[in-house]
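Throughout this review, each integer encodes one residue's backbone shape. One record appears below.

===
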Amino acid sequence: MGHDATTGLTANMAVATCRNARRQGAGLVETSQAVEEALIDQFGTSRYVTGIPADLDLTTGRLEWINRGHHLPVLIRDGRWSSELQCPPAGPMGVALGLPVTVCHEQLQPGDRLLLYTDGVVEARNRKGELFGLDRFVDFVVRHHADRLTVHETLCRLTHAVLDHHDGRLEDDATVLLAEWRDTGQDDLMPWHSAVDSGAALDQEVAERRGDARPPPRRA
């Protein structure tokens, strides 16, 4: 969320404005414009944020997004290759550049993973001054995707890899969003899904050992 309190305040204001606009039914372009207006009202043009406002239709897999001066999203497909999604940049929100905002589209395929990140991830340096880097970052995610690890396990291992590279302490915010789209079985991607299944199986085993006809209900 930034280097200091002012930067954190800027980011929080942007997120709150974005959520408010979306809840009122604003589209991606209107939402980014609302964020820009809120920041200019508060800070003039001295503070800004970058971002990739996006909308993914969970039924069809159609992705709509705009580029507000941020690192490009990375698409991972078939666990073997990756590509950066291209979209004309409209500039950061809060600097009033007046550039046109283009809504870009991408049709995801079942099993595709979408990777978004902040510069604190790829620009993390070790003691030798070596960057973690985009190539290492993407390769790490692709390899773990090929190994069929879940999104949550992949992110957990990625977090440790970035921190280890940076000796356990980051000098900038490091945020990663990794999303996977499936045409069916979306609930299987939820982190609690396997835990609930395991808990239900355990309840069943305990009930059988006790001789109960039915296991007691399990509460989430």
Observations:
- The radius of gyration is 21 Å.
- The first strand starts at residue 54 and ends at 56.
